[in-house]
Specification:
Protein_kinase_ATP_BS; Transferase(Phosphotransferase), domain 1; binds magnesium ion; six-stranded mixed beta sheet; 2 domains; 11 helices; 19% strand; Phosphorylase Kinase, domain 1; Plant_Ser_Thr_Prot_Kinase; binds adenosine-5'-triphosphate; alpha+beta; ATP binding; 28% helix; non-specific serine/threonine protein kinase
Length: 422
Protein backbone atom coordinates (compact mmCIF):
# COMPACT_ATOMS: atom_id res chain seq x y z
CA UNK A 1 0.00 0.00 0.00
CA UNK A 2 1.40 3.38 -0.75
CA UNK A 3 0.81 6.58 1.09
CA UNK A 4 1.92 10.11 0.68
CA UNK A 5 5.08 10.80 2.65
CA UNK A 6 7.54 13.64 2.52
CA UNK A 7 11.07 14.05 1.42
CA UNK A 8 13.82 16.54 1.74
CA UNK A 9 15.87 17.67 -1.18
CA UNK A 10 19.17 19.35 -1.35
CA UNK A 11 21.14 20.36 -4.32
CA UNK A 12 24.44 18.59 -4.00
CA UNK A 13 27.68 19.78 -5.51
CA UNK A 14 27.07 17.33 -8.28
CA UNK A 15 23.72 18.88 -9.13
CA UNK A 16 22.07 15.69 -7.92
CA UNK A 17 19.34 15.75 -5.36
CA UNK A 18 19.54 13.98 -2.08
CA UNK A 19 16.12 12.66 -1.26
CA UNK A 20 15.35 11.78 2.28
CA UNK A 21 11.96 10.56 3.25
CA UNK A 22 10.87 10.81 6.84
CA UNK A 23 11.29 7.46 8.48
CA UNK A 24 12.62 5.92 11.58
CA UNK A 25 14.70 2.86 11.82
CA UNK A 26 14.37 0.19 14.41
CA UNK A 27 17.08 1.26 16.72
CA UNK A 28 17.59 3.54 19.60
CA UNK A 29 18.49 1.84 22.82
CA UNK A 30 21.79 2.49 24.42
CA UNK A 31 22.88 5.96 23.49
CA UNK A 32 20.35 7.47 25.80
CA UNK A 33 18.89 10.16 23.59
CA UNK A 34 15.29 10.19 22.55
CA UNK A 35 13.85 11.46 19.30
CA UNK A 36 12.54 14.94 18.88
CA UNK A 37 9.30 15.61 17.16
CA UNK A 38 10.01 17.80 14.17
CA UNK A 39 12.08 16.78 11.23
CA UNK A 40 12.53 19.46 8.69
CA UNK A 41 15.47 21.79 8.60
CA UNK A 42 16.39 24.95 6.87
CA UNK A 43 18.83 23.40 4.40
CA UNK A 44 16.04 21.46 2.80
CA UNK A 45 12.77 22.11 1.10
CA UNK A 46 9.86 19.86 1.78
CA UNK A 47 7.80 18.21 -0.90
CA UNK A 48 5.54 15.24 -1.22
CA UNK A 49 6.65 11.84 -2.42
CA UNK A 50 5.01 8.50 -2.77
CA UNK A 51 6.29 6.00 -0.31
CA UNK A 52 5.21 2.83 1.33
CA UNK A 53 5.47 2.43 5.02
CA UNK A 54 4.97 -0.16 7.68
CA UNK A 55 5.14 -0.18 11.39
CA UNK A 56 8.88 0.31 11.64
CA UNK A 57 8.73 3.43 9.52
CA UNK A 58 6.37 5.09 11.96
CA UNK A 59 8.74 7.58 13.44
CA UNK A 60 9.27 5.84 16.74
CA UNK A 61 12.86 5.08 17.67
CA UNK A 62 12.90 1.77 19.46
CA UNK A 63 14.53 -1.65 19.38
CA UNK A 64 13.99 -3.67 16.23
CA UNK A 65 11.10 -6.09 16.06
CA UNK A 66 10.55 -7.47 12.61
CA UNK A 67 7.79 -9.61 11.26
CA UNK A 68 8.94 -12.91 9.85
CA UNK A 69 6.93 -15.30 7.74
CA UNK A 70 4.38 -14.54 5.07
CA UNK A 71 1.32 -15.39 7.15
CA UNK A 72 1.88 -12.29 9.19
CA UNK A 73 2.89 -14.06 12.37
CA UNK A 74 5.18 -11.82 14.28
CA UNK A 75 8.32 -12.95 16.06
CA UNK A 76 11.39 -11.17 17.27
CA UNK A 77 14.33 -11.29 14.94
CA UNK A 78 17.16 -13.46 16.29
CA UNK A 79 19.64 -10.63 16.19
CA UNK A 80 19.30 -6.98 15.54
CA UNK A 81 21.79 -4.17 15.24
CA UNK A 82 20.41 -2.54 18.36
CA UNK A 83 20.84 -5.73 20.41
CA UNK A 84 24.35 -6.25 19.01
CA UNK A 85 25.08 -2.63 19.83
CA UNK A 86 23.88 -3.13 23.39
CA UNK A 87 26.04 -6.21 23.70
CA UNK A 88 29.30 -5.01 22.29
CA UNK A 89 29.04 -1.69 20.50
CA UNK A 90 28.65 1.09 22.97
CA UNK A 91 31.49 0.06 25.23
CA UNK A 92 33.93 0.68 22.40
CA UNK A 93 32.83 4.16 21.47
CA UNK A 94 34.16 7.20 23.22
CA UNK A 95 31.70 9.80 24.46
CA UNK A 96 33.00 13.30 23.81
CA UNK A 97 32.09 16.57 25.49
CA UNK A 98 30.84 19.23 23.12
CA UNK A 99 33.52 21.62 24.37
CA UNK A 100 36.23 19.06 23.62
CA UNK A 101 35.15 18.82 19.98
CA UNK A 102 34.70 22.57 19.77
CA UNK A 103 38.30 22.99 20.90
CA UNK A 104 39.53 20.22 18.60
CA UNK A 105 38.10 21.93 15.52
CA UNK A 106 38.97 25.56 16.33
CA UNK A 107 35.31 26.21 17.15
CA UNK A 108 34.14 24.49 13.98
CA UNK A 109 35.93 27.12 11.94
CA UNK A 110 35.59 27.39 8.19
CA UNK A 111 39.30 26.77 7.86
CA UNK A 112 38.82 23.33 9.39
CA UNK A 113 35.83 22.41 7.23
CA UNK A 114 36.36 19.32 5.07
CA UNK A 115 32.99 19.26 3.37
CA UNK A 116 29.27 19.52 3.73
CA UNK A 117 26.64 16.88 3.12
CA UNK A 118 22.88 16.62 3.34
CA UNK A 119 22.86 16.27 7.10
CA UNK A 120 25.65 18.47 8.33
CA UNK A 121 29.23 19.64 7.97
CA UNK A 122 32.46 17.73 8.47
CA UNK A 123 35.51 19.36 10.14
CA UNK A 124 39.08 18.29 10.65
CA UNK A 125 40.12 18.24 14.29
CA UNK A 126 42.84 16.94 16.57
CA UNK A 127 42.20 14.96 19.72
CA UNK A 128 44.22 13.21 22.39
CA UNK A 129 43.56 9.72 23.69
CA UNK A 130 40.86 9.49 26.39
CA UNK A 131 43.53 9.41 29.12
CA UNK A 132 44.90 12.71 27.82
CA UNK A 133 48.28 11.16 27.03
CA UNK A 134 50.21 10.87 23.77
CA UNK A 135 50.18 13.05 20.66
CA UNK A 136 47.04 14.55 19.27
CA UNK A 137 45.72 12.61 16.30
CA UNK A 138 43.69 13.95 13.38
CA UNK A 139 39.97 13.11 13.27
CA UNK A 140 36.95 14.10 11.20
CA UNK A 141 34.06 15.55 13.19
CA UNK A 142 30.62 15.54 11.61
CA UNK A 143 28.28 18.09 13.15
CA UNK A 144 24.73 17.30 12.21
CA UNK A 145 22.37 20.11 11.31
CA UNK A 146 20.94 21.36 14.54
CA UNK A 147 17.25 21.34 13.92
CA UNK A 148 15.24 18.34 12.95
CA UNK A 149 14.64 14.80 14.05
CA UNK A 150 16.03 13.55 10.74
CA UNK A 151 19.48 14.59 11.88
CA UNK A 152 19.00 12.76 15.13
CA UNK A 153 17.93 9.61 13.30
CA UNK A 154 20.92 9.70 10.97
CA UNK A 155 23.17 10.18 13.96
CA UNK A 156 21.60 7.36 15.94
CA UNK A 157 21.76 4.93 13.02
CA UNK A 158 25.38 5.80 12.39
CA UNK A 159 26.33 5.27 16.05
CA UNK A 160 24.59 1.93 16.21
CA UNK A 161 25.70 0.49 12.86
CA UNK A 162 29.29 1.67 13.10
CA UNK A 163 29.41 0.73 16.79
CA UNK A 164 28.83 -2.88 15.72
CA UNK A 165 30.31 -3.25 12.23
CA UNK A 166 34.02 -3.69 11.71
CA UNK A 167 35.85 -4.22 8.44
CA UNK A 168 38.98 -2.82 6.75
CA UNK A 169 36.73 -1.23 4.09
CA UNK A 170 34.43 0.60 6.50
CA UNK A 171 35.35 3.90 8.10
CA UNK A 172 36.00 3.67 11.83
CA UNK A 173 33.77 5.61 14.18
CA UNK A 174 35.78 6.67 17.23
CA UNK A 175 32.99 8.18 19.26
CA UNK A 176 30.12 10.60 19.45
CA UNK A 177 28.66 13.54 21.31
CA UNK A 178 25.02 14.23 22.13
CA UNK A 179 23.90 17.21 24.17
CA UNK A 180 20.48 18.71 24.69
CA UNK A 181 20.39 22.16 26.19
CA UNK A 182 18.17 25.26 26.10
CA UNK A 183 20.32 26.41 23.19
CA UNK A 184 19.30 23.37 21.24
CA UNK A 185 20.40 19.80 20.61
CA UNK A 186 23.83 18.92 19.26
CA UNK A 187 24.66 15.63 17.63
CA UNK A 188 28.22 14.94 16.53
CA UNK A 189 30.20 11.96 15.26
CA UNK A 190 33.96 11.52 15.42
CA UNK A 191 35.66 9.36 12.77
CA UNK A 192 39.18 8.37 11.89
CA UNK A 193 40.56 10.99 9.53
CA UNK A 194 40.80 9.97 5.90
CA UNK A 195 43.60 12.05 4.31
CA UNK A 196 42.65 11.39 0.71
CA UNK A 197 39.03 12.51 1.08
CA UNK A 198 36.46 10.80 -1.12
CA UNK A 199 36.38 9.00 -4.47
CA UNK A 200 34.09 11.81 -5.66
CA UNK A 201 36.86 14.35 -5.04
CA UNK A 202 39.34 12.40 -7.17
CA UNK A 203 37.03 11.30 -9.94
CA UNK A 204 35.20 14.53 -10.62
CA UNK A 205 37.19 17.46 -9.27
CA UNK A 206 39.63 18.81 -11.78
CA UNK A 207 41.81 20.25 -8.97
CA UNK A 208 42.95 16.72 -8.13
CA UNK A 209 45.19 14.71 -10.45
CA UNK A 210 43.29 11.95 -12.27
CA UNK A 211 43.10 8.55 -10.60
CA UNK A 212 45.11 5.93 -12.44
CA UNK A 213 43.49 2.81 -13.84
CA UNK A 214 45.13 0.59 -11.26
CA UNK A 215 43.98 2.82 -8.42
CA UNK A 216 40.41 2.90 -9.74
CA UNK A 217 40.33 -0.88 -9.75
CA UNK A 218 41.77 -1.12 -6.24
CA UNK A 219 39.30 1.43 -4.90
CA UNK A 220 36.24 -0.19 -6.42
CA UNK A 221 37.38 -3.64 -5.30
CA UNK A 222 37.75 -2.36 -1.73
CA UNK A 223 34.33 -0.73 -1.86
CA UNK A 224 32.84 -3.99 -3.20
CA UNK A 225 34.43 -5.92 -0.33
CA UNK A 226 32.94 -3.46 2.15
CA UNK A 227 29.47 -3.89 0.64
CA UNK A 228 29.83 -7.70 0.51
CA UNK A 229 30.67 -7.66 4.20
CA UNK A 230 27.53 -5.66 4.96
CA UNK A 231 25.32 -7.96 2.89
CA UNK A 232 26.83 -11.31 3.73
CA UNK A 233 29.37 -11.02 6.51
CA UNK A 234 27.41 -9.84 9.54
CA UNK A 235 24.88 -11.74 11.71
CA UNK A 236 22.30 -9.20 10.58
CA UNK A 237 22.21 -8.32 6.90
CA UNK A 238 22.85 -4.62 6.43
CA UNK A 239 21.55 -2.71 3.43
CA UNK A 240 23.66 0.39 2.97
CA UNK A 241 21.24 2.46 0.87
CA UNK A 242 23.62 5.31 0.07
CA UNK A 243 26.35 3.83 -2.09
CA UNK A 244 27.93 6.66 -4.10
CA UNK A 245 31.35 8.15 -4.75
CA UNK A 246 31.19 10.78 -1.98
CA UNK A 247 30.62 8.03 0.58
CA UNK A 248 33.70 6.08 -0.49
CA UNK A 249 36.49 7.65 1.55
CA UNK A 250 40.18 7.05 0.86
CA UNK A 251 42.87 6.50 3.48
CA UNK A 252 46.53 7.43 3.12
CA UNK A 253 47.13 4.40 0.89
CA UNK A 254 43.97 5.05 -1.15
CA UNK A 255 42.21 2.12 0.45
CA UNK A 256 38.44 2.54 0.09
CA UNK A 257 36.34 2.88 3.23
CA UNK A 258 32.58 3.21 3.17
CA UNK A 259 31.23 6.02 5.31
CA UNK A 260 27.80 7.38 6.20
CA UNK A 261 25.56 4.76 7.74
CA UNK A 262 22.81 7.24 8.51
CA UNK A 263 20.53 5.62 5.95
CA UNK A 264 21.62 2.01 6.50
CA UNK A 265 18.91 -0.49 7.22
CA UNK A 266 18.62 -4.05 8.43
CA UNK A 267 17.72 -6.48 5.66
CA UNK A 268 14.65 -8.71 5.57
CA UNK A 269 14.48 -11.63 7.99
CA UNK A 270 12.66 -14.96 7.99
CA UNK A 271 10.52 -15.58 4.93
CA UNK A 272 10.39 -11.91 4.02
CA UNK A 273 11.92 -11.09 0.67
CA UNK A 274 12.26 -7.37 1.22
CA UNK A 275 11.87 -4.61 3.74
CA UNK A 276 9.16 -2.08 2.97
CA UNK A 277 10.37 1.37 3.65
CA UNK A 278 10.04 4.98 2.72
CA UNK A 279 12.32 5.77 -0.21
CA UNK A 280 15.58 7.45 0.74
CA UNK A 281 18.89 7.82 -1.01
CA UNK A 282 20.45 9.98 -3.67
CA UNK A 283 18.95 10.59 -7.05
CA UNK A 284 20.93 8.91 -9.79
CA UNK A 285 21.89 5.95 -7.60
CA UNK A 286 18.66 4.41 -6.30
CA UNK A 287 17.35 1.21 -7.90
CA UNK A 288 14.17 1.63 -9.97
CA UNK A 289 12.12 -1.01 -8.14
CA UNK A 290 12.99 0.62 -4.85
CA UNK A 291 11.93 4.04 -6.08
CA UNK A 292 8.70 2.60 -7.49
CA UNK A 293 7.65 0.39 -4.58
CA UNK A 294 9.74 1.20 -1.53
CA UNK A 295 10.70 -2.51 -1.49
CA UNK A 296 14.27 -2.61 -0.28
CA UNK A 297 16.68 -5.53 -0.72
CA UNK A 298 20.45 -5.90 -0.82
CA UNK A 299 20.05 -5.88 -4.62
CA UNK A 300 19.18 -2.17 -4.41
CA UNK A 301 22.78 -1.60 -3.24
CA UNK A 302 24.00 -3.79 -6.12
CA UNK A 303 22.24 -1.43 -8.56
CA UNK A 304 23.96 1.59 -6.97
CA UNK A 305 27.25 -0.29 -7.25
CA UNK A 306 26.64 -0.71 -10.99
CA UNK A 307 26.12 3.04 -11.31
CA UNK A 308 29.42 3.75 -9.54
CA UNK A 309 31.22 1.23 -11.79
CA UNK A 310 30.15 3.29 -14.81
CA UNK A 311 31.23 6.49 -13.03
CA UNK A 312 34.68 4.99 -12.51
CA UNK A 313 34.98 3.96 -16.15
CA UNK A 314 33.70 7.22 -17.59
CA UNK A 315 34.74 9.85 -15.04
CA UNK A 316 31.18 11.18 -15.41
CA UNK A 317 28.62 11.68 -12.68
CA UNK A 318 25.48 9.56 -12.70
CA UNK A 319 23.54 12.77 -13.16
CA UNK A 320 25.14 15.89 -14.59
CA UNK A 321 22.87 18.80 -15.41
CA UNK A 322 25.76 20.66 -17.03
CA UNK A 323 26.01 18.20 -19.91
CA UNK A 324 23.96 18.32 -23.12
CA UNK A 325 20.47 16.87 -22.57
CA UNK A 326 21.28 13.51 -24.21
CA UNK A 327 24.28 12.98 -21.91
CA UNK A 328 22.93 14.17 -18.55
CA UNK A 329 21.87 10.74 -17.37
CA UNK A 330 24.92 8.53 -17.42
CA UNK A 331 23.08 5.21 -17.73
CA UNK A 332 21.03 6.42 -20.69
CA UNK A 333 24.17 7.64 -22.40
CA UNK A 334 26.40 4.60 -21.90
CA UNK A 335 23.71 2.21 -23.12
CA UNK A 336 24.50 3.41 -26.66
CA UNK A 337 28.03 2.01 -26.35
CA UNK A 338 27.68 -1.63 -25.24
CA UNK A 339 30.74 -3.43 -23.80
CA UNK A 340 31.23 -5.64 -26.87
CA UNK A 341 30.65 -2.93 -29.44
CA UNK A 342 33.38 -1.40 -31.55
CA UNK A 343 32.73 2.06 -30.20
CA UNK A 344 32.76 1.03 -26.52
CA UNK A 345 35.87 3.10 -25.82
CA UNK A 346 33.94 6.31 -26.46
CA UNK A 347 32.65 6.10 -22.91
CA UNK A 348 36.05 5.81 -21.24
CA UNK A 349 37.30 8.70 -19.11
CA UNK A 350 39.54 10.92 -21.27
CA UNK A 351 41.55 11.70 -18.12
CA UNK A 352 42.87 8.13 -18.30
CA UNK A 353 44.60 9.19 -21.55
CA UNK A 354 44.08 5.75 -22.97
CA UNK A 355 46.08 4.17 -20.13
CA UNK A 356 43.80 1.34 -19.20
CA UNK A 357 43.13 -2.24 -20.18
CA UNK A 358 40.32 -2.32 -22.72
CA UNK A 359 39.65 -5.96 -21.97
CA UNK A 360 39.21 -5.23 -18.25
CA UNK A 361 37.13 -2.15 -19.01
CA UNK A 362 34.77 -4.27 -21.14
CA UNK A 363 34.55 -6.88 -18.37
CA UNK A 364 33.77 -4.19 -15.84
CA UNK A 365 31.11 -2.65 -18.09
CA UNK A 366 29.53 -6.11 -18.44
CA UNK A 367 29.63 -6.49 -14.68
CA UNK A 368 28.01 -3.07 -14.33
CA UNK A 369 25.29 -4.09 -16.79
CA UNK A 370 24.53 -7.19 -14.71
CA UNK A 371 24.28 -5.03 -11.56
CA UNK A 372 21.89 -2.79 -13.48
CA UNK A 373 19.48 -5.49 -14.62
CA UNK A 374 15.89 -4.41 -14.25
CA UNK A 375 14.97 -7.64 -12.52
CA UNK A 376 16.65 -7.29 -9.13
CA UNK A 377 16.81 -11.05 -8.60
CA UNK A 378 19.00 -11.47 -11.67
CA UNK A 379 21.62 -9.05 -10.37
CA UNK A 380 24.73 -10.71 -8.90
CA UNK A 381 25.37 -10.81 -5.17
CA UNK A 382 28.16 -8.60 -3.89
CA UNK A 383 30.40 -11.60 -3.24
CA UNK A 384 30.01 -12.56 -6.91
CA UNK A 385 30.85 -8.99 -7.85
CA UNK A 386 33.97 -9.14 -5.67
CA UNK A 387 35.08 -12.33 -7.46
CA UNK A 388 34.76 -10.78 -10.91
CA UNK A 389 36.57 -7.63 -9.83
CA UNK A 390 39.34 -9.59 -8.15
CA UNK A 391 39.98 -11.48 -11.37
CA UNK A 392 39.98 -8.24 -13.37
CA UNK A 393 42.43 -6.64 -10.94
CA UNK A 394 44.75 -9.63 -11.05
CA UNK A 395 44.74 -9.85 -14.82
CA UNK A 396 44.48 -6.23 -15.91
CA UNK A 397 45.56 -3.80 -13.21
CA UNK A 398 48.14 -2.35 -15.57
CA UNK A 399 47.07 -0.46 -18.67
CA UNK A 400 47.51 -2.43 -21.89
CA UNK A 401 49.88 0.13 -23.33
CA UNK A 402 52.16 -0.11 -20.30
CA UNK A 403 52.50 -3.88 -20.43
CA UNK A 404 53.07 -4.81 -24.05
CA UNK A 405 54.16 -8.30 -23.11
CA UNK A 406 51.97 -8.58 -20.05
CA UNK A 407 48.81 -10.60 -19.51
CA UNK A 408 46.55 -7.63 -20.21
CA UNK A 409 48.03 -6.98 -23.64
CA UNK A 410 47.80 -10.30 -25.46
CA UNK A 411 48.33 -8.87 -28.90
CA UNK A 412 45.89 -6.02 -28.41
CA UNK A 413 48.45 -3.36 -27.94
CA UNK A 414 47.31 -1.17 -30.79
CA UNK A 415 43.69 -1.32 -29.69
CA UNK A 416 44.49 -0.58 -26.06
CA UNK A 417 46.88 2.24 -26.74
CA UNK A 418 44.48 4.11 -29.00
CA UNK A 419 43.15 7.20 -27.28
CA UNK A 420 39.45 7.29 -26.56
CA UNK A 421 37.42 8.98 -29.24
CA UNK A 422 36.16 11.88 -27.19
N1 LIG B 1 36.37 10.59 7.98
C1 LIG B 1 36.59 11.56 7.11
N2 LIG B 1 37.85 11.98 6.85
C2 LIG B 1 38.10 12.95 5.95
N3 LIG B 1 37.15 13.59 5.24
C3 LIG B 1 35.88 13.24 5.46
C4 LIG B 1 35.52 12.22 6.39
N4 LIG B 1 34.17 12.09 6.38
C5 LIG B 1 33.72 12.98 5.48
N5 LIG B 1 34.73 13.68 4.92
C6 LIG B 1 34.64 14.74 3.91
O1 LIG B 1 33.47 15.50 4.14
C7 LIG B 1 32.66 15.51 2.97
C8 LIG B 1 31.22 15.62 3.38
O2 LIG B 1 30.78 14.37 3.89
P1 LIG B 1 29.26 14.05 4.11
O3 LIG B 1 29.16 12.61 4.35
O4 LIG B 1 28.73 14.95 5.17
O5 LIG B 1 28.56 14.50 2.80
P2 LIG B 1 28.45 13.84 1.36
O6 LIG B 1 28.91 12.41 1.41
O7 LIG B 1 29.14 14.72 0.37
O8 LIG B 1 26.91 13.89 1.08
P3 LIG B 1 25.76 13.06 1.78
O9 LIG B 1 25.29 13.84 2.96
O10 LIG B 1 24.74 12.97 0.74
O11 LIG B 1 26.36 11.74 2.18
C9 LIG B 1 33.03 14.24 2.22
O12 LIG B 1 32.79 14.32 0.86
C10 LIG B 1 34.53 14.13 2.52
O13 LIG B 1 35.26 14.89 1.58
MG1 LIG C 1 28.66 11.16 2.88
Amino acid sequence: MSCLGWFKRRRSRSGGIVVVVGEARGAGAGVGVGPRDHDDDDHHTTASAVSTSRSDDSGAVRPVSKSAGSAGSSQLSQRSISSLYEERGHGQLRVFDYEELQGATAEFSRAQKLGEGGFGSVYKGFIRAADGKGDRVPVAVKKLNQRGMQGHKQWLAEVQFLGVLEHPNLVKLLGYCAVDSERGAQRLLVYEFMPNKSLEDHLFRRANPPLSWNRRLQVILGAAEGLAYLHEGVEVQVIYRDFKTSNILLDKDFRAKLSDFGLAREGPTGANTHVSTAVVGTQGYAAPEYIDSGHLTAKSDVWSFGVVLYEILTGRRSLDRNKPAAEQKLLEWVVQFPPDSRNFRVIMDPRLRGEYSVKAAREIAKLADSCLLKNAKERPTMSEVVEVLRRAVQAHAEPDNRTPGGPGAKGKKADAAAPSRR
